[in-house]
Here is the input.
Amino acid sequence: MKEIKHLCVKPGSEVDLESIDPEFCGGLDKETARAQTAEDLQALEHLQQQLYAEDKRALLVVLQGIDTAGKDGVIRKVMTGFNPQGCVVTPFKKPAGEEVEHDYLWRVHKACPRRGEVGVFNRSHYEDVLVVRVHELVHGKRLERRYDTINGFERMLTDEGTHVVKFFLWISQDEQKKRLQERLEDPEKNWKFSEADLKERALWKEYIEAFNIALGRCSTEHAPWWIVPANRKWFRDWMVARVLRTTLEGFKMEWPRTTLDLTKVKVK
Ligand code: AMP
Ligand code: MG
Here is the structure.
């Protein structure tokens, strides 16, 4: 983990994404990274089983990133380490229907994992300080207060047993161009293309600024933000798997003990 320690945002620090190389790969090569990821995924499967058996706490994984950064890819490649029974993935789109009638945390809180579960958010409450900031859907004090509210919300989740870990997938503008181009050219990727992505791409600078602010203000000891250099998909997957493994190992879980005297129980 020491090669990626600096990618965990220190609480209260200023973030400048431009100073981080999206090509960074910590001296790893693709083959080694893929092999280590495979091992980490096996470890994750075991750790998740313990989490489920223990039924005491939950893990919430938040994924954010600009369009094409690889949120879906991480879910496909890394979250497959988890047993579907006990892992719930929730994508957050533009709020609609009942969601609009409530505060911005309403839909998010409802989607938080139960005890024993891993919850994965594909986008999250952070959209409410990202896209909302960029498009000025909310501004002034109401927007500014949201950062503290989010920190308080995550504090409460942690206090009540839900551990929060957040990943920002960081790709370069050139890499995004390449990936959008692929979506246009590859018939199997056409479905992912949306004209809206081009409009958002034109707001690159505004998005980076909004991410800088959100990552800086909302990385806390209990709910840290990790910046994942994501131009290389194999490094992205390696880093997410490694951080998740280390996080779950940090729980120091034990298999629950039965109160039965097993020496007296017979399987007939
Ligand atoms: P995708 O993840 O590509 O399916 O796109 C989902 C879209 O929903 C993105 O453009 C997000 O910015 C947008 N979205 C998600 N949450 C919110 C929100 N709270 N307010 C406005 N737009 C949102
Ligand atoms: Mg999209």
In short: Strands lie at 58-65, 87-91, 118-122, 162-170, 225-229. The chain is about 40% helix and 10% strand.
